[in-house]
């Protein structure tokens, strides 16, 4: 019954997006107590791994999408091709609203990988280099410090 109700609110578009035509919450489709794309992923694909988020991959590949509240991919529920469970950092770095996502290295040339990046500041929107932080805590120069294993 719930699946029939779900499909009654979906419109398939020529770009491959399946747009949620029902209620919206901050641009995302709302289905019962959940976001529609999250419900679709859990119902048709399976559980979302602990600590992961559902990312709209259709958004990531569209250079014309303005992102943020104007993003027209937020109501997409195409679980077959456009939704992927990813770590929050991956989801944020993929987003169009992240002006620093193209910066792959810190100022000391340590790569911003998921393992070597920590988040801080308001809403955890800023990122820092774990290798540099560790070097500073050890009283070493971050510019010349090489670390064999990232900190946890």
Concise overview:
The chain is α+β, with helices and mostly antiparallel strands and 152 residues long. The chain has 5 helices and 9 strands; from the N terminus they run H-E-E-E-E-E-H-E-H-E-H-E-E-H.
* Strand arrangement in the largest pleated sheet: 3-4-5
What is the number of E strands? 9
Q: Given the C-alpha coordinates, what overall shape results? A: elongated
Order of helices and strands: HEEEEEHEHEHEEH
Task: From the alpha carbons, calculate the radius of gyration and give it in angstroms.
Answer: 19 Å
H/I helix tally: 5
Q: What report would you give on this structure?
A:
The protein has 152 residues and is an alpha+beta fold. The chain has two domains: 2-99, no CATH class; 103-152, no CATH class. 23% of the residues lie in helices and 20% in strands. The protein has a three-stranded antiparallel sheet. β4 and β5 (34-35) form a beta hairpin. The longest helix is centred in the N-terminal third of the chain and has 10 residues, at 36-45. It is elongated, with a radius of gyration of 19 Å. The chain starts with a helix and ends in a 15-residue tail after the last helix.
């Amino acid at each position: 019954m719930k699946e029939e109700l779900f499909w009654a609110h979906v419109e398939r578009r020529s770009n491959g997006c399946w747009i949620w035509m029902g209620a919206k919450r901050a641009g995302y489709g709302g289905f019962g107590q959940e976001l529609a794309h999250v419900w679709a992923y859990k119902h048709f694909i399976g559980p979302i791994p602990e600590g992961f988020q559902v990312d709209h991959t259709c958004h990531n590949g569209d250079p014309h999408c303005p992102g943020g509240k104007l993003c027209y991919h937020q109501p997409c529920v195409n679980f077959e091709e456009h939704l992927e469970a990813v770590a929050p950092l991956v989801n944020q770095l993929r987003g169009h609203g992240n002006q620093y996502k193209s910066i792959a290295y810190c100022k000391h040339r340590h790569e911003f990988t998921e393992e070597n990046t920590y988040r801080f500041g308001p809403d955890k929107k800023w990122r820092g280099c774990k290798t540099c932080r560790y070097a500073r805590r050890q009283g070493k120069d971050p510019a010349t410090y090489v670390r064999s294993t990232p900190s946890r």
